[in-house]
Amino acid sequence: MKLMLLPLLAVLARPAPCQEDGGYNFGQEIRHFAVDAGRVYVATDDRLHQLSHDLRLNRTVDLRAVVKGAGTVSVQLTEADKGTDTFRVHVLLPFVSGGTLITCGVTSDNCGYCELLDLVDISRVLYREPVLVGPPWRSNASVAILVNVTSRNSPKSETYILTAVQQLNRSIDVGCPSDIGALNLLNTKNDQRGGIFSAISDSSNAMVHYKGNPDVNFVDGFQVGAVIYLIFNHNKTGTKEAHLLWFKGDQGKRDSLKDIRGGILAPTDAGKSATKVMASSLVPGATQVLWVGVFAVDGEETNTQLVLFDIGSDLGGRTDRDPDFRLHREKNALKPQAVVYRQNNMTSVLAVRHRAWMVFFIGTDDGQVIKLAVDKNYRSPCPSVLYRSNDDRTVRPKLHMDQVDRKHIYVPFQNQIKRMPVATCSNYATVQECWSAQDPHCVWCISKSSCTFEDDCRGSDWLSIPDDFQQKMISHRVVEEKTDEIKLIVLTHVSVSRSPVSNFTCGFTANSVNLCTGEAVSPLIPQCTCTLAKSTLPTDGLHVSIRITLWTADLSQQMRIYNCSDMIGPPTSSLCIQCVEAGCGWSETGCTWANQKAGNVSVCQTLPSKRNYSTPIISSVSPHTVSFYGKNQAKLTGRNLGDVIRVRIRADMDCKPWESPVWSNTGETLMFQIPSANSKGTAKVCVLLPDGTCHGTTTISYRSLPSCNNITPDSSWFSGNRQITLMGSHLDFVDGIALSHSPYKILTFTETESQNLTFNSSQAEYGSIFASYVHLVVANQTLTCSKLMTYYPEPEFSNFTTTRVGDSVLVTIQKKADKLDMSPQELSVWGIQRGADYKCEMQKKETSNETDFFTCKIEQTSEAKFQKLKIIYGNKMVLLMPKSLSSYSMLSLLFLASIPFIVIFAVMIYRRKQKMLADQMNKRMEELEFDIRSDIRQGFVDLQTEKADLLENVGAIPFLDYKHFAAKIFFPESESMMVSCIKDIGQDGVQVQLDEVCQAVSRLIHNQLFLTSMVHAIEEQKSFGIKDKCVFASLLTVALHSDLPYLTEVMEALLRDLMQQRGATQPKLLLRRTESIVEKLLTNWMSICLYGFLRETVGEHLFLIVSALTQQTAKGPVDCVTEKALYTLSEDWLLWQAQDFATLKLKVLFAVGCDGEVSEPLEVNALNCDTVEQLKEKILASFKNKFGFPYCTPIRELCVEHQKNGSFVPLEEVDASSVVVGEVTMLNTLKHYQVPDGATVKVLSRKTHPPLSPQGSLRDDENFSGKYFHLIDPEDVEDQRTNPERKKLKLKEVHLTKLLSTKVAVHSFVENLFKSIWGATHCKAPLTVKYFFDFLDTQADNMKINDPDVLHIWKTNSLPLRYWVNIIKNPQFVFDVEKTAHLDGCLSVIAQAFMDSFSLSDAQLGKYAPTNKLLYAKDIPKFKQEVKSYYQQIKDQSPITPSEFKGFLLEESKKHENEFNQAVALRDLHKFIQRYEKVIKEKLDQNGAPAELTEQLHHVKTLFDQQKSCSWD
Questions:
Q1: pLDDT single digits (tens) 865-898
Q2: CB 421 within 8 A of CB 1439
Q3: Dihedral angle at the C-alpha atoms of 1335, 1338, 1343, 1349, nearest 10 degrees?
Q4: Cis status, amide bond into 177, omega within 30 of 0
C-alpha cells in the first residue's frame, strides 16, 4: 500500500485561522511548531502553516493522505482522488542548509509517511516516501532534532535526523510494522549511504533498542559542539526520575550511538523526592554547558522549580552498548548549580544570554509569560510579567526566539501562537525608571535621551544596569576619616558602553551651598567622594543633594546623612534599619561608622522592636483566592489584632509589598483591601504594627479573571427580579452584576460558585423590546459577558379553568405565548375564594396554538371554583379573573338590543346640527389636509433637490492671533483677566525686566515641590471654588508660558497625584470634568501645544462649517426676534411656524458722495420675509464675499431705500404702517413693502444722507422680544382660535425634514472637519497627542489598570471632549467672528455627534429619541471605526523621546515669547499665596520641604509688604 499527501489550500468551510493582535489563531490544536531564520512553521491537527517571522500567514496546506494500491505512487492525481485519511505530523524540522522542511508522521492507521517540502514555499513537495521516522502514534514525549556527525575517516560533517522515540510499558497496534528503535540516526539526503530516511550505516543500522519494556518519556534534545544531549523522564514503579543522556557525534553514524553515557538529574537532595522535567532549554554563550529545566518536585506538577545544571563535565559514566537507561544513581547523579526560581505551575522555559546576564522566559499553565534575569552569582531582581491572559490558557512547553530581530519570542498556546517583545524599554521615560526596570535588554541611550534596546542605540553612548544585581542605582557609605572629619562615599551601579568615561561629574550641596571641604578630587566612575566636617551634621541629619552626571544623563539623588555616632538608643530593628539606610554600619552595640562595621538590612530583622506589642496571629483570610483585579472587601481573622495598622501583601513577583489600610478592627477580625496584581500566583500576607514589624504568615492566591459564556434564561420581563444564571469560570470572584441599561445599579447575586452565578434581573423602563449587556463587577473593574440578555414586555395571563380531581383541584392557567420561555418554577399561584388563599403547587407547562398552559394543583380543598387567582412572578403580582360566559352574554345582549333605539333617538335630535357641523368640518379638514400634504411634499422636494452650492471659497480666514486665542481659552468668563494678561500690539516681542518682587515669586513657583504643595494645599480649602481653581490654573499658565517644559513637568506630577487620588476608586470618571487646577491646566496645555495643528490643519475646515451653516441658514426664513430658522440642525431652533416665502434677486446700489451718484449694481439674494435689518446684513455679506473686504460703513449707520414708481421709498424696521397685534408690533418685511423680484435697492449712509425720520436699532431696546415679533406671533394659539383662517396650520413634525436637508448640505464639511481632527497627518498624530497618550498608558500600567475601556475614556476625556468639543462649539475663540444663538445651537448638534463618535456604548434610539441624536445616528458607527483606527494608529506610532518633545515645547515657548503680561499673572498668583499662606506652610512641612523654601516664601511676603504691586521698569 502506498500513501500520497495532497498539499491543498485550506478548505473554506472549516474554521479559518486568523491573525490577532500580536499573534495568530489557527482554529485547531497546535501539534508542533518550528522556527528558522525568517519563517515559522506550524503543524495543527490536519494542516500545515507557513508564516513570516512577524506571524503573517504565507501558506496553508491541508494534510490529507490518499490511499493507493501497491506499486509506484503517481504524482498526478485525478479530480476523484480526494484526501480521505488524515496525515498527522510528528516530526517537523527546518533543514536550512538543505533548503527543505522535513515533515514526517503517520496516518490514522499508524502507517509512516514523510515529505520534503520547499522551505520557502511549503506547497511545493520535493520528495515523498511512506516511511516511519518518528513515533508510530501521536506522542508529545518523543524528540526529533537535526544533528551534525563527523567521523575519524572524514572530517566532513553530515546532517542526520536523531529521533528519540517514547517507550511505553504497553503495546500499541501499528498498521504498517517497521523497524524503529528508541534512538535512531536517519539520513536527510539521498546521496547519503542507504538513501534518504535510512538508518543504514556500513554493516548495521544506526539505532538503539531498549531492554525490557520501560516507561520512558523524552523531553528535549540538543547538540553543543560534538556532544549530543537528550533529556527524558523515567517512570518507575512508585517513583519518577529525570535523566540526561549524552554521546559524541564524532565517531561516524554507526559508532556514535555505541558510546552513550548518562546520569540522573537530581534537583533535590539525594533524589529523595520524585522529580519530572516539564520543560528544557540550553543556556547559550558560556564556557560551561549550562542547561536549565522546569522540574516538578514532590510528585506534583503544580510544585515546580527552575533548576540550573552544568552538564558539560564528563561524569565518568560507563559505556553501555545496549543501554536500558537505568544508570546507577549513586555514581551518575548530577547536582544542580542553583535553583534559580520557584513558582507554581511553570510549563515552559527559554534561556538566552545578554551581556553577563542569563535571561529566562517562563510560561505557566495559567497563561502567563514571566521574564527572569539572573546574574553570574545566580542572584536576580524581581521577575516581570511579559504577558498575562485573562483566562487559564496553558503555555505549551517549547518557546522560540525570533531569529530575525531577537527582540521577540514565540509563545504557543493550544491553538494560538503569540509573538511577544522580550522587553518594553520604551515604557520607561527617565534614566531612573529605565535602570529600575532591572532589564538587561534595556539601556539609556544618551543621544536619544530615551530607554531603548541596545541595538537601537548604535553610534551612541549608553548606560544600563551593572553585570551583577544591585538594588539601588546609587548607594552611599559614611566613613570616619579623622576625629573631626567624615567621608561620604557614593557609588553609581551602572554599566556603560565605553570606559573610562571622561565626563562623569559629581556635586554635593546642602541648602544650595557646596558641602565638601578640602581640595576637589576628580571623580572616577563609579565612585564619588566628599569630605566634610562632623560639625556640619545636625543631630537630626542633613539633607544632601547629590548631582551626578554621566555624559548628559542626570543621576541626581536626594539623601539624608547622619553622624553615625549620634544615632544612639536601644538596639531595636527600627534603629538598625535607619542606621544601615543612612550609610552607617551596625554592630552588636549599636550604630557605628561604615568603615568600622559592615551591615545590611537583613541583620536588623533579628532585633526586637522598639515597643512591646502582643504578637498578632493570623488564622485565616477570606476570600483567600481572588482574581488578579483583587478584592475591595476582605476579612482577616486571628488573635491580638488590635494594634494592627495595615495589612502587607507581597506577591511572588513583586519587589515591593503593597500595604492596605484596615478598618472595622475588633481585635479578632479586621477588614482590608486585597490590591490588584501584575501577575497570577500566590502572595504572602502579614499584619503590620506601628513599630514597622510584620507578623503572621498566610497566603492568598491570584487567579484568572472571571468569564461567562452562557446566560439562562437569556431574557427578562420589564418589571425585573427574574432569576438569571450565568455559566462560565471563576464566577466566585465576582462582586456584583451590572446591566448596560442601568450601569450604575450594582446587583447582588443570590448564590455563586466557580462555574455558576445566580442573580435577579433589574427593572427596566417599559417600552420597546431591547437587549442589555451583562457586566461582571470585579473589584474596581467591569467585564462584559459574551451573551446578551433581552428585555420583553410582561407575560400576559388571559384565563384559568379548574377541574375537580378527588380531593384536589387542578388549575390550568392560560398565558399568551412569548419569548420569555417562562418555566413553572418561576410562578407562585394561589386560588382565592371568599377571602381565603389556597396554595397551588406548580406541576407542568404545555404550549399549543400560541398559548402556554400552566398546570398547578390545590391539595385537600372542598372548593371546586375560585373567584380569582393570585399569580406572583419576579416581584410582580397579577390577579386573574375567570371569563364567565353567562353573565357577560346577558349584558352584551341587553346592550346590543338598546343600540338601535339609542342611534335612532340621537339621529332624530341632532340630525340637522350634525349636517351643518359635518359640512363645516369637511371643508376645514380638506383645507388642513391640503396644507399638510403641500408642506410634506415641499419638504420632500426640497430634500431631494437640495443643491450643494455652498460657497467653499470664503477668502482669507480671519484667524485670531495666538495671544487672543489663548486668552479666550484661559479666561472664557472674565473679560478683564483676558485683557490684563496679554500685551498690547505695540509691546509684542518687547522683553520687559521683571522687578525684584515678581522675580522672587517666579523663583518660588519654579520650585516644583513648592508649587505642587501649594496646589494641593489650596485645593483642600472649601473656600477655594471651581472658578478660583480655573483662574489660578490660567494665571499659572501665563506665568510659566515661557518655560513650557517645566509647566509640563508640573502638570504631569499633579495628574499623577490626581490619578492616585481618584483613579483607584472610579477610574472611568477621571478627567471627566474640570473640577481641579490640573484639569484646567490640562485644557490650557492642550490649547497651547495644539495651536499650530489647529491653525494649519483643522482651522480651515472649522471656518468652512461656520460659513456653510451661515449660508444654509440664509436660504430660508430666520425669525429676527427669536433667531429661529427654517434651515437648521437643531430642533430647538427650528422655525416650524414659518409661512410661505419667496426668493428675491435685488439690485443694490451704493450711494457715492453727496450728489446722488451711485455705484454699479450688486446682485443680492434676499427673501420676501426678511426684515430690513436682515436685508442690510445680507447686503454687507454679499459685498464682502464679492470684493474680499468689508464695507466701510457699519450696519448701524446704514439706511436702505426701495425704488418704487420712479422714486425711492425708505425701508424702516417699524413705521406707521406696521401691523400691530394687541400690544406687540410686527417688524416690517420686504413683503410688507411689496418689494418685487428684481427690484432696485439703494444703500446710503446716515451721516451723508440723514433720513427724514431717524430710527436707531430696535435691538437696543431691553424689551425687544416683548414689544416686537417677526415670523412667530406670541399670541399665535389664541389668535388662531378666534380667527382660524388668518394663518395656515403648521405642524412642527412636518418640517423636521429641514433638519435633514441642512445636514445633507453641510455634511461634507462636517466629515472633513472630523477627519482633519482624527486623521493623522502623514500617518502621524501631533507630537502632543502621542506624548500625552503614552503618558496615560504609562500611568495605567503603573496603577495596574488593565481595562482598555478606562484608557479609552481617559484619552477621550483629555483630548476630544476637553479640547476639540470646546473649539467646535466656540469658533469665536479661533476666528474674528460673531457666534449667534442659532449658530451655537447648530454647532452643539455637530459637537454632540463628535462626542458620540468617541463613546464606547451604543445608544438605543427609538422614535422618541432626540433629533440631535437621530440626525447623525447612521454616521456614528462609521465615525467610531475611524476613531478606533485613530487611537490604534497613535498607539502604534513610534514613541516620542523626552528630548524630542522638550525641543518642541521650547520652540513653542520661543514662538510666543513676550506676548503675555507675566507680571500681572505673578502679582495675581501672589494674592492666592497671601490668602492661603498658612495652609501652604503646613503642607510644605508635611511634604518634608527644606527650610530654604519656607524662607523664600517669607522673603516674598516681606518684599510685597514693602511694595504692594508688581510693575515693569
A1: 898 999 999 989 999 988 754 445 455 556 666 7
A2: no
A3: 80
A4: no
